[in-house]
Amino acid sequence: MSDLRKLVFDQSHKRGSVTSKFSIPKPDFTPLKWNDYFDKEEFIETSTGSHHIFVKGSTGPIILCLHGGGYNGLTWALFTKEIFANLECQIVALDFRGHGKTKTNNDTDLSLETLSMDVVDVANTLAEREKTSIVLVGHSMGGAIAVSASYKIDSLVGLCVIDVVEGTALDALSSMQSILRGRPTHFKSIPHAIQWCYKGGQSHNLEAARVSMPGQIINMETGELACDEWETFDKIDAKCIDIPCTTKFLENDLSLKEVDEEPATATEKMPANKPPLPHSDKHTNFKIPENQNNKDGGPKYTWRIDLSKTEPFWHNWFQGLSERFLGCKVPRVLILANIHGLDTKLTVGQMQGKFQLQVLAKTGHAVHEDQPHQVAEILSIYLVKQKCTQCKPGFSMPLYPNTCC
């Protein structure tokens, strides 16, 4: 026996297992509080209702962030922390109507025109109050809304769209209902929901899932967002959760069945061109230890919004998006998770130098959650180059060789 093999053999008998010395820490699914990332929350009153926002900073241009369908302003938490460290700016993360804590005269009207006017009203109110300019940043559905609203905001100086283009978005709509049916309808606890978000693939960044997911679900008893249950947060210890990803969710049933991993059917496969709504890569549900469940072990949380009921608006969100994006007069940047997402119009426009393109590979649809540092750096460089704001001391300006200006 070689000296190395003998050493391993001896150590394994002394400790029971050599690999125990190098064991990987278990993931922590405890929720994180929004005030670790934002300074305050407030409501902007307009003629249509109260629009909820999270705010970071008090000086400089306003970066108004618009989330995708099903998310809320907390999806921008990690991005906010990163970009605020780079730039002299204010970050405002808006909850769309029907999402988060925004309340309007008709929360079910999610048409492009209505959502765009909500953004215009909020942006103009903030610009007038703060006497500053606006930069719109939108992800998925929020990107489409940002493009539409950009034509009606006089103080707008920049536009950033994240992982949505017209052609691929419209192509993906046919599979949306199948994807949504694969998601759990209820969760037994907040850590249970966070674990599904992370292990199910909606977010590939655990910290992002811990702060973002509580803003997407509500307590079924109180109707309040999970992110507001701070007293509950302080009592949760989810570091001990360690559940294998081999449990399959049964629609409208919280029971679990252990199954072998198997290829998805044709209708369950995730489109390569990234669907425009939140999704998971696996149909999964995870069992939380009994001390993490409510007393009867039944469902306690459900989604803030039923995305399947928004289907009448899907086509309207994305139809004509490429033409509107190219026609916008302010400097534009498009951040994609896949270079193959470009449709014909955008490919021609990019070759003509009409907008800046950046591709971040090895990321999911929620690019700003998966790689917040990289997205913040790209946008920071973009805004400084366009003279929209100034760098904070210590922020360097690295060059991206595949950036097209």
- Helix residue percentage: 25-40%
CATH architecture: 3-Layer(aba) Sandwich
SSE string, helices as H and strands as E: HEEEHEEHEHEHHEHHEHEEEHHEHEHH
Number of strands: 14
The whole-angstrom Rg is 22 Å
CATH class membership: Alpha Beta
- Residue windows where pLDDT falls under 50 for at least 5 positions: 11-21, 243-295, 401-405
Give the CA-based shape. Answer: globular
Give a written overview of the molecule.
It is a single chain. This protein has 405 residues and is of the alpha/beta class. It has a single domain (34-385), classed as Alpha/Beta hydrolase fold, catalytic domain (Rossmann fold, 3-Layer(aba) Sandwich). The protein has helices at residues 3-15, 77-86, 112-130, 141-149, 166-172, 176-181, 190-199, 206-212, 230-235, 311-318, 321-327, 344-351, 367-370, 372-385, and strands at 40-46, 49-56, 62-66, 90-94, 103-104, 134-139, 156-162, 186-187, 217-219, 247-250, 253-258, 301-303, 332-336, 356-359. Strands 1, 2, 3, 4, 5, 6, 7, 13 and 14 form a nine-stranded mixed β-sheet that branches. A three-stranded antiparallel β-sheet has the order 8-12-9. A two-stranded antiparallel ribbon has the order 10-11. α2 (77-86) packs across α14 (372-385) and α3 (112-130) crosses α4. The longest helix is centred in the N-terminal third of the chain and has 19 residues, at 112-130. 46% of the residues are buried.
